[in-house]
Structures are given as structure tokens and as C-alpha cells.
Amino acid sequence: MTQTIAVIRGDGIGPEIMDATLQVLDSLDVGLDYEFVEAGTGALESQGELLPQATLESIRKHKVALKSPLMTPVGGGFSSINVQLRRIFDLYANVRPAISFPNTKSRYSNIDMITVRENTEGAYRSEGQTLSEDGEIAKSEIQVTRKGSERIARYAYELAKSTGRKKVTIVHKANIIKTASGLFLETARRVAEEYPEIETQEMIVDNACMQLVMRPEQFDVVVTTNLFGDIMSDLCAGLVGGLGLAPGANIGEEAAIFEAVHGSAPDIAGKGLANPCALLLAAAQMLDHLGKQDKAERLRAAIIATLEAKDSLTPDLGGSGTTSSFAAAIAKRVAA
């Protein structure tokens, strides 16, 4: 029996890494069909809007989407489409693993952790941002709710429980941001009491960042608010070789979107230089979500074996391969 997923090929290098990822998934024979839909600058050019209704309907219908990077302008311009998607589908849990891989540019070889970030509230509420008429004063509202805090904390503890992880670190800034961060910490503590078998650690965000650099092996599952999670998960990616190895899942009750968390890299688009691993690892997260854990493990094992063999690696990984040749090397191993 096959299952259809929505596929967003994205901007910049997005189409290249998506083609590579689908090549590997097809070799893995996971029983997926694809409905290709558009978002981002490509959708704007072809359909006159950044996030067409047909795309939203496809995600709503199939409940699962695989997405390449979409461009978000810095400062002015349109708001983040990624944030819009998270808000529209209430994708409240952003789940980003950071795992050490062989033959990567990393200082560490023993990292295996997951950042669970609240994905829909906090500092990223666009309706809470204002700029005075004279352009001299900018204000941004941070809103944290008990409901949002409880469900993200519970997601983190349930994830730890279901995957055999032993510790959850609650990261906050309640010593200074006593209301918003304080509410999150208080709520997470109450959830933690329901999971006595899992060790709970509390850490102020600035100390957490320092500890990640000094002794990252102490972390297992981290749960935190939107802005802190965004920053910390990129820091974690840097510990294991960069964003080229950083997948992300956006999970809600009714839908889930899996993505490479790096940018669209327009400077190398069309040159065959892009590393597809982040999107491939996101596809592995998607397979886990779909109950195809055996296929997910085969995919991860093939990626590791290809890295170990230094087979057709892309330039960011120290090789001279291309996006397509690297994908072909991984596809060969998953099909073996």
C-alpha cells in the first residue's frame, strides 16, 4: 500500500537536494507517492502568491510534507513562509536531532541529542511587532501560554520515553524574563513530575550555550521556547559538522512537515555542489513518523556508510562529488 505525501521543491538549491532525496527514497522502496506543490519565490513567479491555497490543501489532505528550503529575506520583504506554515497547521513541536557523523568537520565525535523547540508562540509572533512612525522605536511582543508550554514539554518527555533517552534539560531565562520564561519553566516542571523515570535538569539559556560548547555529551533531550530553540539548535548543528547535516521536523496534531533547516543558498544553486544530507535525514525523520522505522534506520545507515567510505562526498564534506553523485552513492547502499 502506498501513501502520498506533499513535496515542496523549494528555492535556490532546493530542487537539487529534493531530486537527490527522492532518488534515494525510491531506491529504498518505501511505498511513497509524491504530490508536487509550490511555495516560495517559485510559487510567486508561477502563481502570483508565495503560499498558494493548493499547497495548503495538499498538506491538509496528505498530513505529511517533505520540504526543501524556502528563501526568507532579511529585514524587509515578505515574512517567513516557514513560520506561516507552522502557524497555519499548528505545528507546535520543532524537533532537531544533532548526531555526530564520521568524516565531518567537527570537534566532537560523541554527540547524540535532540532539541525540542516550541514552534508557534514566544518571540516569533508577527502580530506583536511594531515600529514607530519615526522609525526610532521597534517593539516586539513575547507571548507564552500555559497550553503551549505544557504540550511542548509533554512532547519532549514522551519523545525521551519512547526513544529510551534518559534526561530532559529544560532551558529557560526565568531569572530575567520572569513572566514569559517563568511561566514556561513552571509549566515544564509540573510536566516533569509525571515522568519520574526520566532525569530532569534545568539550565539558564546562556549557561546552556556555554555547556554545549564545552561539554555537549551531557545533553540528551533539550526542551525550550521558540527563540532559544532556534538559536541553540543551530549551535548544535555546528557541533556536528554544520547545517548540511541538520534535519528538522515540525509536528502538529493534524499535520507534519519535514525539512532541511539550512537556507536556500542561491549562490551555489544549479552548480551541483549542495549537500543533500540534511533533507535525507529529514526524510528519515518522516519515515519514523510514518511508522517505517526499519526503512529510516536503513537510510541513516547508508548515509553513515557513504560518509565512512568518503564516496562521492560534496565539497563541504571534503570531497569532489556532486549532489547527484553523492545521492547515487547513498542510493546504491540503501538498495543493497
TrEMBL record:
Keywords: Oxidoreductase. One of its GO terms (biological process) is isocitrate metabolic process. Gene3D superfamilies: Isopropylmalate Dehydrogenase. Residues 4-330 form the Isopropylmalate dehydrogenase-like domain. It comes from the Bacteria. One of its GO terms (molecular function) is NAD binding. The keyword rRNA processing does not apply. It holds the Pfam family Iso_dh. Belongs to the isocitrate and isopropylmalate dehydrogenases family. NCBIfam families: PRK08997.1. This is Isocitrate dehydrogenase. It comes from Halotalea alkalilenta.
